[in-house]
Structure formats: C-alpha cells, structure tokens
Amino acid sequence: MDTLHKIKTAIRQAVGFDLDISYPPTSELGDLSLAVFALAKVKGQNQVILAQEISQNLEQNKKLGSLISDVKAVGPYVNLFLNYTNLGAEVLTEIKKAKNKYGQNDSGLKAGVMIEFSNGNTHKEVHIGHLRNICFGDAITKLLTTSGYKTIPVSYINDFGIFTAKTLWQYQKNQKQYQAMKGSQGYILGTCYKDAVSALEGNDASKAEVTRIMKAIESRQGEYYKLWQETRLWSIAYLKEVYQDLGIKFKKTFYESNVIADGLKIVSGLIKNNVLVKSEGAIIANLEKYNLGVLPIIRSDGTALYPVADLALAVKKFKENKITESIYIVDVRQELYFKQLFKILELMGYQQKITHLAYDFVTLPSGMMSSRSGNVITYRELIDESIANAISETKAKRADWSDRKIKKIATEITLSTIKFEMLKVSSRKTITFDIKEALKFEGYTATYLQYTHARIMSISKKSGTKKTKADYKLLSEPAEKTLIMKLAKYPETILRATEKYDPSEVTKYLFELCQNFNDFYHNVQIIKSKTTVKAARLELALAVGQIIKNGLELLGIQAINEI
RNA sequence: GCGCCCAUAGUUCAAUGGAUAGAACACCAGCCUUCUAAGCUGGUUACGUAGGUCCGAUUCCUACUGGGCGUACCA
C-alpha cells in the first residue's frame, strides 16, 4: 500500500466512518480535507459542530501524531496538515526502492484481459484517426498491466472488406501510374484507395465491377485473388512499419481473411437456430425486440459483411486464450454495432465479459475527415511534417549539436508529441486536430515534460558523485512540500486512470508535476546549496525524474535524457 | 423521425454534488556573468437557455436551443 493510502486509511479508522477524503483548494487550508456532510446527515448533527468535534478527536489521537502535524475545522470541513518530514522520507524512500515499479498496484488480480485495438485495414490509408486508436489502446494496455492485469494486446487487420476490391479496381486500371509513385507500396495503396472512392462516386457501372472483384477475391481463385494476395502483403508490411515507428507491440495478430470461413459456419448454424433470418434477400439479425434494430450479416449478392468475421473472432478469442474479459477499442460511432454483435454472442450462449471501449474520433479544424472529400491527414504526412518542424526547432536551439543528434532527438520529440496529443484529451471528447497547435513545444505538451525530465537528468549529471545521506527534514520549502505531496499522489492517480480507462488523468498529472518541479527549480538552489541540503534536494529531483519516466512509460512514451 | 454524445475564457481543454470554476495557447509587460529561457513571474477574459431535486448543482433530472454521430446490405 502506498504512503498516502496508508495515511488516509489511518484517518478513516480514527474517525470511524468512511468519510470522503479530498484535497483542499489551496495548500494554506491544509493537505487533506474531510467533508463531514454525509456523516452529519447520518448522525442528524450540525455540520460545523461535527467538524469541530472530529477535529478535536483527531488532534488528540496519538496514533496519528507521526502522520499529522495539525488539524483545523473550517466550517463543514476538517482540514489536516501532514507531517512532511515523515511523508517526504516515506515517499522518497519508496520511490528510490521501487524505481520503475512505483505506482504499480495489484487491483487487477492477474485476470486475463484481451485488448483488441489498432483497427488496421489493408488497401487503405493510415490516418490520424487510426493514430488515436493505437495510442489509446496502447496506453490502456499499459495501464491495465501496471494495475495487475494479465494483458494480451492484439491487432485485428481487416483485409477482406469491400474496400480491398475498390482499391484493386482502381489499381488495376492505373497500374503504371501507381507503380511510378514514390514511397512504400503500402502507402501507395492508401492513395489508390482515396482515388477509388472519388472515382466510384455516383458511378453505378463501376460499382458493379467492384462487386465482381469482391466475389472473385472471396472465391480465392483467379487474377484478382492473386493481386489481392500480393497487395495485401504490401499493406501488412506498411502497418508493421507504423507499429514499429510507434513502438507498439502486439502479442497476436488476427486477419479477417483467416477467420471468415469459421464465421460462415457460425452463420449457417445461427440461421438454423433462427437467430439469423433472411430478409429482403440478405441475411440479417433482427434485434428490434432488444431495441437494437437490424444488423445485416450477408449481402443480398451473397458476399459477407463485417460481422461474419467478427463473430468467429470473438469465439476464437475465448477458445484459444485464458481470458476473463475481451475488450474492443473502437471509436464511438460503432457503439450500436458492438451492442448488436454482443447481443448475438449472448444469444449464442456466451456469458463472458465483453466490453466495447469507445473513444471519440479525430476531426480537423476544416471538418470531419473523409476519404471522399480528401480531407484527411495521413500518418505519413503528419510524421514527415512534424519531424521536419522538430528538426528546425532543435537546430535553432541547439546550434552545437551534430545533425545526427538533432535528428535523433527531433524524432523522439515528434513521437512523444503525437502520442501525448492523442492522449491528453479525455476519450469521450472529439479531438479537433490542429497540426499547427500540435507542432508547438510550449505549455501542456510532451516537450514540456521531456524538457523537465532532461533538466533533471542534467542536474543529476552535474551534481557530482559524492554521496551524502539525505536528511528529509531539510525539505521544508513550500515548493518542496508541494512536490512531495504531488509524488505521493502518483499511485492513486494511476489507479483512477485505470478504473476510468482514462490516460488523460496521467497526462494531466505529469504536467502538473512538472509545473511543480519547475517552480521548485526556479525558487530553490539544488547543486549550490550546502551538502546536506543538496543531498535531500537532489533526491527529491531524482524522484520527480523517476515519476516522469514512469508516467510517460504508461503513455507509451520514452523519457528523453537530453533535449 | 428515433437513439447516443457534446456545449465552460478569443481558441483548445480541466474540474469524485462541496470551499475563491483551473490550465495551456494567443496577447501585453518583465526575468539568463547563477543547476537546460523548449523555462519562470505578473496582467485581461468563461459555466448555451429555462425549470426541477438537494443544506449545497458546472456536475444529477426534464424541456428547449445549437453542434456531432449513428440508425439494413460501409467498417
């Protein structure tokens, strides 16, 4: 149990009631605050008088003596001042000991959880919408892991949808043009898809051709199937490249084309059971009596729709893995679809926990992204532009660095920035992605955190090797107390972020921690103070560095030592 | 039409039903012979409207207004 949790538990025990313990709006009021509203109601007592009573009791409680330095009743609140010598010593010792494990907890009880994310498609572009999914999924995986779940991150690549036929239709007609293009083949296919969408608009004859191509692919014979096989690998290689850039690792990868046969078997079984029925020439699931409308499963031309593979995959996940929960990270627009899918699985007899973890999509200042209108920022465009910008910024600020070093740091800054921008907005909200804003390195940005981390590393380097034992009593400046309290709050922040599936709790915490550190840095001398004071302050600074590193790690971001 | 989500400062975002609604960006004025100025300090500006529940509502409920998304053969 972490220090702060211990203190809170001791206070609750002393009061004898499970009171809400919060933090006062300003540190002058205290470090912890008990709101007595609920207890006053239970006891039928006046709030202010009760607060005074509790305050007196706590003051006389000897067990709390080492933890609390003062208690003050303020209206309906009991405000507590912590014993910082004690708190600082405990927290800093804990961080020094646990290092990268500080903040971990075992609330997950080693339960197996499979997390599907990334939503990759072959024969399509990778854009910043996918990026949010990938960053969010990776952060959720890391949060669950740090909270004691056994996580199995998996990616599911859609390589068998109608869009593959659209892309191949376009590619076939203009092979020379596309073959002449620069860039990786997978990226070119993405361009090809965009072109296909606009070429097909309002073009019924061509749409019929696309249907024929799709049927040919599904038959797994002939020229189009061969072309599909070949191009599919281009896209898969490109997706791998993207994952590698971002440092994302999956334990397994599933492909739609590999599970669809099983899906068709399941579908025919479900038709026999009347779970699925024929209607208007198509096979559908009629879920109207559950208020979930109708889900088409097989088109009237006989080709399979998305749920066919998804049903098989859902079954396969439980069959082949020891998991108690299966999580799907897919954007909020598919909420109804997943309710429908889960309902069908329930009708099939599956009772395991299946969760759709929705997040809102990414939009641009110019409006919704759409392949049709060409209003899309692709992953490649974003990365290229961002790195170029980071290189020129770094060059301007670090004129003495070698080109190689500048490129290395600029790339790290870029990746940090992209991930951080995707995670700092709560998942329930649309991200209006303004590339101009995202290229900035000031304020609430990854660079601010990285800069603070690098600053701490630099101080550490310059501090020399002489070891003096730190005396935590010497950490008595207001800025030092604020930092100690903030460090103490890290474990509960991680827990809350996990429970809420909300990485933005972590980004917010880290930003505030860095603000606190920079305040400390500008007000207090570290290296130049007396050896005893220096030792204590240095340890505090290193603890902050450790937490920045730990927190960034949860966001899939590697801390930079020099920037 | 029906369903889901959103509405806070000029902009982008915060705030377990609780104390004076916080940041960042932008704008203005300052701070480097001193541990990294990608930093710090100071200044201006906000809860869409109308009700309800509650000791107390930005937060919960209802209606309205505005925006987004979904709603049978896209994924």
Structure report:
The chain has 563 residues and is of the alpha/beta class. The protein folds into 3 domains: 3-82, Gyrase A, domain 2, CATH 3.30.1360.70; 117-258 and 310-368, Rossmann fold; 392-554, Orthogonal Bundle (Isoleucyl-tRNA Synthetase, Domain 1). Helices cover 56% and strands 12% of the residues. It has 21 helices and 15 strands. The chain has helices at 3-15, 37-43, 47-60, 84-98, 128-146, 162-173, 175-179, 185-200, 204-219, 222-246, 256-272, 306-320, 335-347, 379-397, 403-423, 435-438, 446-462, 478-488, 490-499, 504-523, 531-554; strands spanning 21-22, 32-35, 68-74, 77-82, 112-116, 150-157, 252-255, 277-279, 282-286, 294-298, 325-331, 353-359, 362-364, 367-368, 431-432. It has a 5-stranded parallel sheet, sandwiched between helices. Strands 1-2-4-3 form a 4-stranded antiparallel sheet. The longest helix is centred in the middle third of the chain and has 25 residues, at 222-246. It is globular. The mean pLDDT is 94. The chain binds one RNA strand of 75 nucleotides through helix 2, strand 9, strand 10, helix 13 and helix 14.
